[in-house]
Design goal:
By secondary structure, the chain is α/β, with parallel strands linked by helices.
Amino acid sequence: MYDDRERLAALWETELEVFRAARPRSEEQWERAILHMPDGVPMLWMAKWPGPWPVYVSTASGAHFDCVDGIDHVDLCLGDTGAMCGHAPAASVRAISEQLARGSTFMLPTEDAAAAAEALAARFRVPVWQFSLSATDANRSLIRYARQVTGRPRILVHDHSYHGTVDEAYATLDEAGDVVSRRGNIGPPVPLEQTTAVVQFNDIAALEFALSAGDIAAVLIEPALTNIGIVLPEPGYHDAVRELCTRYGALLIIDETHTFSAGPGGMTETLDLHPDAVVLGKSIGGGIPAGAYGMTREFALAVRDSLDLEDIDVGGVGGTLAGNAVSLAGIRATLGEVLTPAAFVHMIERCTEWTVGVQAALDEFEVPWQVTQLGARAEYSFRPTAPSDGAEAAAADDFELQQYLHLHALNRGILMTPFHNMALMCPKTTAADVERHTVTFREAVVSLYG
């Protein structure tokens, strides 16, 4: 934690003045927007960006965007993974535009559907795929399917995991170890202990104890935590998860929405994982809404055999726009021509440079923070050692310090993810882009510790 709060407050006020002076046109846009949108934003969480008003984007390409005030930014947020392919990737834009000109949604398949499913099956080791508009939709569908085929009522998640806006996943553990609703959970429909079991990441004993009750339909996990800082699995953890799910009859669902940054097949490929289902979203559509979920053939057959054709459309899975032609064109092009194996090599190299740059500043000024890398994604946290679970990562959070660092970066043309200290590389991120962050981050460290 950072102790000199008076210094931090003074630095914050200085950066606010820099922001205000540089962004008058964004202020104008915001003043217009607040008349008809709460906080002047189309989604309330956008108000969490640091600064007195949001930055309004005018154009974006690759790893950069320009705001309405004409400022060029290196984008290390990339839509919190939604633009991991880079902004406006040519192959995706072409495929999406061409499909739009032919029609966007039919409730009927196109050739792109089979091609997208084949590409996902080749990368993520499960052969049967369905499509949605988001990873949240995909997770909801799989939870329903898991309950359907197992006859069990609850799911299990890791504490501080990220699975979109799925109701069942907004659970955490209190100080007594009881399952409770997460802080800030908006209007939870039922008490979370009725739907969800929660265990700490890397805690094999706790996982077995929870599964032994026999009421868990599915274990829904990220292979590494990503939304509370990056928390990596300890050696042998995933082998134990797979064995325990098999032993106690729970389906294993791996959500690779963020951990896709690890490589072309996510951590499923890099760690040789064997899930019953895989979830993807955000980046796979080339920047437009798209999600997908894959299943083993056994799981898929069990689902299909449990459903009557007459009622297959009213069971709570799928939406009218799910699997639409434009999303599928985007997925096919993005996987085939943008987020390729060669692109991941480049992205991971740039991320390694970013990690080295952050670590150099921390070492130079003996700052008690740490930085962790996961493929093309890296993140620093305000603790001296890497966390082993979500509770440890959450205990190191410092919202005011984080906001200052993000505003400092934004004032120098660098966008970080507003919810945590994450940087993500896309195929167009350059070494010069990374160096801009390295220089800026060191300046921020100097302002705090120099």
